[in-house]
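Figure 3 (text version): structure tokens given as input.
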């Protein structure tokens, strides 16, 4: 009779046998890769269509499992919505291009500055010629403004042939005489000598005309 089966097993042998069984067993299974289900894809696609619909359209066509008919319906509704927005707010392609064209944006900003400067200069001249201490029959002439608008205009500045208004207007009526934001000049002319009516003009970049008369 073989008595080896009844012999006690040492601790080391037990651990060795356990390791062998574990090695032969199923072991630790590989982690199961989680895949997007149809419901999750649908939810993600809808969220992208609402929040980032250009990306949502791409995801809908190339990633979602929607039927082709549904894709066509959603695309058609999206295009109709875009057309409605354009028509409702009267958005045109030139407007869109202008908003993304930095050159035109800077030009518009300079024209806006010119309008503001023309208004400031005209207000200072008007304050001077209507002030009790300076008002005369021909107050514009005292400023050196003599050119009739029908004949042309005089550039405002400190250069040769220009009208220097600083000595008359700064600082009592204006802090400083504005200068053109680029290389142009503001100009002034007389509309009517008797009533001291005058016009200040600027050379615009995009606008058709920048002027103010008082």
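Below: residues designed for each position.
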């Amino acid at each position: 009779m073989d008595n080896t089966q009844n012999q006690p097993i040492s601790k080391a042998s037990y651990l060795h046998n356990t390791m062998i069984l574990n090695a032969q067993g199923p072991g630790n299974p590989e982690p199961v890769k989680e895949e997007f289900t149809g419901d999750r894809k649908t939810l993600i696609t809808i969220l992208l269509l609402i929040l980032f619909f250009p990306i949502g359209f791409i995801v809908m066509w190339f990633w979602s499992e929607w039927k082709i008919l549904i894709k066509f319906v959603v695309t058609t509704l999206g295009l109709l919505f875009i057309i409605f927005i354009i028509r409702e707010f009267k958005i045109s392609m030139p407007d869109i291009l202008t908003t993304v064209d930095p050159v035109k944006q800077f030009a518009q900003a300079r024209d806006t500055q010119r309008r503001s400067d023309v208004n400031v200069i005209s207000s200072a001249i008007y304050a001077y010629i209507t002030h009790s201490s300076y008002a005369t029959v021909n107050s514009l002439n005292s400023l050196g403004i003599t050119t009739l608008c029908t004949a042309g205009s005089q550039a405002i500045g400190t250069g040769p042939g220009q009208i220097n208004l600083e000595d008359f207007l700064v600082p009592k009526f204006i802090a400083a005489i504005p200068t053109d934001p680029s290389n142009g000049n503001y100009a002034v002319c007389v509309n009517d000598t008797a009533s001291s009516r005058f016009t200040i003009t600027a050379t615009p970049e995009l606008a058709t005309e920048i002027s103010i008369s008082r």
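The longest helix spans residues 102-130.
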